[in-house]
Each structure stands twice: as C-alpha cells, then as structure tokens.
Amino acid sequence: MLHKNNEPLSAALPNVQSERLFARGHGVFPDGTTRATIERDPTPRYVQRGEGAYLVDVDGQRFLDLNNNFTTLIHGHGYAPVMDAVARLLRDGTCFSNPTVHEIDLAELLIDRIPSVEQIRFVNTGTEAVMFAIKAARAFTGRPCIAKIEGAYHGSYDWAEAGQGGTPSTWGSPDAPVAVPAYAGTPGSVADEVVILRFNDTEGARRRIAAAADRLACILLDPMPSRGGLIPPNPDFVAAVIETARHYGILVVCDEVLNLRQSYRGASSRYGIEPDLIATGKIIGGGFPIGAIGGSRDVMSVFDGSTGRAKLAQGGTFSANPVSMVAGRVSMAAMTEAAFARLDVLGDRLRAALTAAIERRQAHYVVSGTASLFRIHPKQTLPRDYRDAYPSSDEAALMKAMTRFFRNEGVILPDGAAACLSTAMTDADIDKIANTFDRFLAAAPVLEKETHS
Length: 453
Known about the structure:
Blueprint: H1 16-25, E1 47-51, E2 54-57, E3 62-65, H2 68-71, H3 80-90, H4 101-113, E4 119-123, H5 126-141, E5 145-149, H6 158-161, E6 172-173, E7 176-177, H7 188-192, E8 194-197, H8 202-211, E9 216-221, H9 235-248, E10 251-256, H10 267-270, E11 277-281, E12 291-295, H11 297-300, H12 322-334, H13 337-361, E13 366-368, E14 373-377, H14 386-389, H15 393-408, E15 411-412, E16 419-420, H16 427-442, H17 444-452
Parallel strand pairs: 3-15, 5-8, 5-9, 9-10, 10-11
Antiparallel strand pairs: 1-2, 2-3, 4-12, 6-7, 11-12, 13-14, 14-16
C-alpha cells in the first residue's frame, strides 16, 4: 500500500538474518516455527534480546514491544529483580519431585490479593489452568457440560476451544450460536457438551443457561475477551450469568490468564464478579511458564487426596517448579497497587491520545480496552461482541497494513489482538505509539480507497 505520493508508507526494515533463520526453521518445523500465534509478514522477526520496554531482533533492529509475549511480561524484558532472583536460585537446582517453600510463598501472595481465592494449585500453562478448572467443576458437580462466551480464547483444551474461531458462515444464528470445532477431527460429542453464549447478551444468556442447566458443570467466563473486542462486560450481563448459575447450582469459572493484569485484585474484582474458580497464568510467572487454578476451599477440595484418591488428580512434572515460583513472586510483589495505578494512568493517556488522533483525522477507527490493555479496530463504532469485532476482509487488510506500518516505525503492535503496556514504559513511549498511529492515519483515506477497490 502506498502513501499519497505513491511512495511506500514506511521503508521496510532489514530482515536478512530472520529470513535465513526462518529458512532453517522450515527444515525442522511444519510451518517454520513452533507456535501458530507467531506473526509473519511473510517472515517472522527473530529476537536476539529484550531490553525493558524494547526488544532487539537478530538484524539489530530495536522495537517498542506492545505484545510482551502475549501480555505476559508486565515488567517488560529482562526485569532485573527477577533475573537476579532466578540467577541465585539456579545454583540450588531448577526442579525437584519434592515441594519447596517457593510455591507456598507465591500461593500466599496470590491468595492474599484475589478475593475469591482461598486455595490454589499450580500448573504450567494457561491452557492447563483452564482445563483443570473445567475438570474441577465437573468433579464437583458431577455434570459433564460447560457454557462459554462465543469467540473467547481459553487455550487448547477441546471443550474450551469450541466456538472460539467461528466465522459468518459457521457460527449460526444470533439466538443459537454454534459450538464450532477448533480443528478437523474434533469429536462430534464436544459440540454437544458446549453451550455458546454471546457476550453481553443478557436475555440470551439466561435462556441458554436455563435450557441446559441440568447438564452444565460451569460457565467459563472471560471478563473481557480479547478476541471478542476487548470490551468490558455490561453489569446486567454479569448479574444475569451469576444469578442464573447460582439458581441452578452451576459453577462460575473466570479465565483471568490474560486479564489478571487489569488490577491488583484481578479483573473479576474489577467487574464485581465472585467466581467459584479462577484460572490464571501469564503475569504470575514473572516471564516463566506457569498457570494456576484457585477458588473456594469447598470447590478446591476436589484436588485433595490426603485421605484417599482425590476426585481430581492433578500433577505435572514441572508444576510449581521453583524457577517459575520465585520469578512469579518477585514479579508480583513489585506489582503494588501503586504500580497498577500507574499502568492505569498510562493506559488511559494512550487510549485518549489514540481516540484524539481518530477524531482529528476523521478516520473510521475506534479504540477499546482498559487498564494496561488496548485494541484498535478499523470500525466506526465499538463492537459489542465477537461477531461485531470479527473483521471483514477489507478491515483485516487495514489491520495488516497498520501492523506493518508500526513495525517499520519500530513498534511491535499485535494484529487483531490485545496490545499491552508494561511498567518499563515511559511517557515518551506512549507518545511514540500515539504519534505512530497519527502518522498512519494521515494516509488512511488513501488506504481505505485502495483496500476496498
């Protein structure tokens, strides 16, 4: 895509070493890398190192990082207190079959902060956290099925994946959303065991939960689904879900793997949700692999095997490994209420600056998000749910052009997902993001004309 003078929007940055590495990667990986989420346009940038709010690729290019490994690095890259603590720990060993004090330390910190959590189990990923939260709900209620929000991403467990990637041709009617399978060969029974709810559809939620109540173990709720537009829940929607669940003895499971970074006490507390279980991960590991399931003593008792076989056995070779425990404790201890408040201020300032640029340029874009999270949509109005947020082919092309423009200006902006801030960022970094967006919008009328042609 070209600027008004038929010159490229911004000069492409050197990518020679990344291209060579990608070619090597194709020799050993099915598509050149080991994660489907890696952005490639057409070649991914291979990272050499991270430096606070920035990362440096193998070609020596420096980028302000708004991805932060998919919202994980709340302190940015190479956070010194975590690096120092882990370096000291490595001399003592990295994993044991026995427990260590470090898992107790991190558990006590999280339980002290998150109102609905009385006990915790640690796992290795957000996917595992969601999976075991669902299993815990089944073990506690004796029911097999779950309800979840359409389009919400919850990792790679069959039932949690259902309905996360529907398209206009597959997602069904608004009144009866389809539990679209995530991959070819998914057992047909999975769709029969998942009820899909549209986000912020109050009456639809009441109706669909009630219709399947005798089979539902839990309602899996992301307080602000990233793929659903990064829109906050309406209070009446939250109330409807909670009241209906309580009436029928259905557990409420909040997935805060991403959204725990919304506040000192997490996203559920921010929106007045009192879940029975919380699945979390990402920021609680300080940059190392982690996941956790937490909840009331009553529900968490399904993991208790002290007097015989537990209703739900959960192990994991690397669960509660001391490296993740120590890194997580140090990282989270530094996330004081003041640190979260500062991120809120930076986030508010950035969203306001982005919106001001849109209004100044009279462009067809909107900005969503809260706290340290934001997302830019090439739309005239804020989406209400996944279907509204789903991009047309023209909108997807605009987002790709914007991501490419940002990258060529030295900023990593996720394409069609949540972008995030870190404590390593400064006011100057916020200005850099806003100014880059404004420069992009300066060419937006030409871009839209060319994209829609």
